[in-house]
Amino acid sequence: MLLSAFGCVLLFALITWQVLVRGPLLRLDVRVDHYIVGTGPGWLSGALSDLGNTEVAPPVLVVAMAYALWRGSRRDVLAAALAMAAVPALVVPLKLWTARPGPLDPSTGYFPSGHSATAMVAYGGAALLLVPYVRRNWPVPVAVILTVATGTGLLLHGYHWPLDVLASWLLCGALLLVTASCMRRSSSRTPDC
Questions:
Q1: Predicted local confidence at residue 91, as pLDDT
Q2: Is 38 in contact with 99 (CB distance < 8 Å)?
Q3: Helix, strand, coil tally for the chain in percent (to 5)
Q4: So what's the pLDDT on residue 135?
Q5: For residue 37, with 0-12 CB atoms within 10 Å meaning exposed, 13-18 middle and 19 or more buried, which class applies?
Q6: Residue-wise pLDDT tens digits, 26-62
Q7: What are the helix (H) ranges across 41-161?
Q8: How far apart are CA 158 and CA 92, in angstroms?
Q9: How far apart are CA 128 and CA 125, in angstroms?
Q10: Which of 86, 110, 135, 139 is the most exposed place for a label (fewest CB within 10 A)?
Q11: Number of separate helices (H) and strands (E) present in the chain
Q12: What is the model's pLDDT at position 76?
């Protein structure tokens, strides 16, 4: 699991480097973006992108945290809370450092996508907290669908470049893999992360 997290971080670093040096991946990113922005109904892409808002995604995690606390999973709740707190701590400095303009907005601060990161960690963290308490593994596919829907909405509406969303998924994928590893350790009563 931690090896997969390391792979995610390496791919994230490669994409970040390409954004900083305006490499070939960035040129491909711009070409792909021109084909997808504006496709589909605007009201739908706007609604999907809103799934990553702080008013929508984190409350889902809070509900899952409350349920897990009620079931006695304090360490798992702490791990999920720390993962969510890490999102702005990681994303905001990266946005300032890369200073990438948006597809339809010349202002900077679009790389990596904060909405994608928020959605992935909130929905993914909620799924990790709920999985031990449900009969079927439905929370994970639901989290994936909500995360992909958020990224799709951001791309189709023109809020973010494809690499912005992909970079967030890689960075937060690593974060969730580490969080899941910590949750497994706490449930098997081994030393904390």
A1: 97
A2: no
A3: 75, 0, 20
A4: 87
A5: middle
A6: 999 999 998 998 888 889 999 999 999 999 999 999 9
A7: 42-49, 57-70, 74-98, 114-130, 139-157
A8: 20
A9: 5
A10: 135
A11: 8, 0
A12: 96
Spatial distance between the Cα atoms of 79 and 34, rounded to a whole number of angstroms: 39
CA-to-CA dists, residue 21 to 59, 92, 99, angstroms: 37, 20, 12
Contact present, 61 and 125 (Cβ < 8 Å): yes
51: DSSP letter = G
The CA distance from 82 to 192, in Å, is: 14
Please tell me the predicted confidence (pLDDT) of residue 42.
87
Question: Residue written as tokens 């702080």?
Answer: 54
Distance between start and end Cα atoms, the chain: 14
User: Residue 130, class by beta-carbon neighbours within 10 Å (0-12 exposed, 13-18 middle, 19+ buried)?
Assistant: buried
Q: 5-24 in b/e burial notation, b at 16+ Cβ within 10 A?
A: beebbebbeebbebbeeeee
Residue identified by tokens 């904390």 is 192
For the segment 101-116, the average pLDDT, to the nearest whole number, is: 92
Contact between residue 152 and residue 23 where contact means Cβ atoms under 8 Å apart: no
